[in-house]
Amino acid sequence: MNNLRKFLDSSVKKFLLATGILNIVIIFLIFLFIFINGIEFFKYSKISDFLFGTKWISLSGIYGLIPLLVGSFWVTIVAILISVPLGILTAVYIFEYAPIKIKNNMKILIEIMSAIPSVVLGFIGLYVLSGPIKNIFNLNSGLTSFTGSIMLAFMALPTIITMTEDALNTLDTSYKEASLALGATKIETIFNVLLPAAFPGIFAGVMLGFGRIIGETLTVLMVTGNAPIIANSPLSPVRTMTATIAAEMGEVVHDSEHYLALFAIGIILFLISFITNTVADYFIRKARNLKN
Fold it and tell me: 21-57, pLDDT tens digit by residue?
């Protein structure tokens, strides 16, 4: 019996190790595939022309990244500005104020929010949200960066709320008790003691939400207008890097300059995603160390 238990324990350890190694190998091969194809593009174009080019006109063979970066910037920054305050305040309410019944119902709702397919959110943005935005701001079209930002903020909220609440729950009760004992109000305790103490976990949630926003494709493809221009405000139509790949990859000739240019965008996206997840992982580890 003991021998069987040892054998099973050893087998499970080896299986988990093999699974971990396989995941690393798969990620490495994906990056290698993107990198090999993307780097080929620079046989046709200078790196500076690609990174600092101000026009993306694929039909004319002009591939400048700046319009796509600007589009991604507007969509991302506005979505973060909406989702971070709303997510943190919602998490504070769930953690500190919500009765147990409401707390459980809100957690279920948050899980449902995270499970909504991006194409459904795209339809909501296209047919429900774009009209009011067009009328409120007196625009020619409601398909703007701002429309996409609202939908992406909705997608990032479950991650930010969950991570923030987890960070608050892991704090030792002595933080709250000591603050209240010194005469601080509950609001002062939350914003001056609890949230700063939980900052590593909260920031990790924000970074993971950022990763979700920057990597989203279908929703922004449907609601942002798909105009590869250097937008001056979030009320302009834009095109993001992810939407460009999704919109154009299906119509390009294999191994053409246009095909390779899309892989070059993929390299930029992969690097952004890698940096985002690395930073988030660092703060998650920091939050765990504070707990211990």
Answer: 998 899 889 889 989 999 999 888 888 889 898 899 8
59-116: pLDDT as tens digits: 888 899 999 999 999 999 999 999 999 999 999 999 888 888 888 888 888 888 888 8
What whole-number distance in Å separates Cα of residue 8 and Cα of residue 4? 6
CA distance 126 to 124: 5
Residues 6+ apart with CB under 8 A from 111: 158
Token readout for 291 is 């707990």
Nearest to 175 by CA among 151, 150, 192: 192
Helices marked H in 137-198? 145-169, 173-181, 186-189, 195-197
Residue 161's closest CA among 81, 89, 78, 80? 89
Q: Give the single-character DSSP code of 253.
A: P
Q: Which two tokens stand for residue 199?
A: 């900052």
CB 244 within 8 A of CB 262: yes
76 near 174, Cβ under 8 Å? no
Whole-Å CA distances, 241 to 12, 19, 68, 123, 146: 41, 32, 5, 20, 16
pTM, full prediction: 0.85
Q: Are 158 and 109 in contact (CB under 8 A)?
A: no
Residues 6+ apart with CB under 8 A from 208: 159, 160, 163, 276, 277, 280
Q: Which of 156, 164, 175, 21 is nearest to 94 (CA)?
A: 164
Q: Which of 102, 84, 93 is nearest to 157 (CA)?
A: 84
Please state, in angstroms and rounded to a whole number, the distance separating the CA atoms of residues 106 and 190.
20
Buried b (16+ CB within 10 A) or exposed e, 142-157: bbbbbbbbbbbbbbbb
Token digits of residue 19: 């699974």
Helix axes 145-169, 66-92, angle to 10 degrees: 40
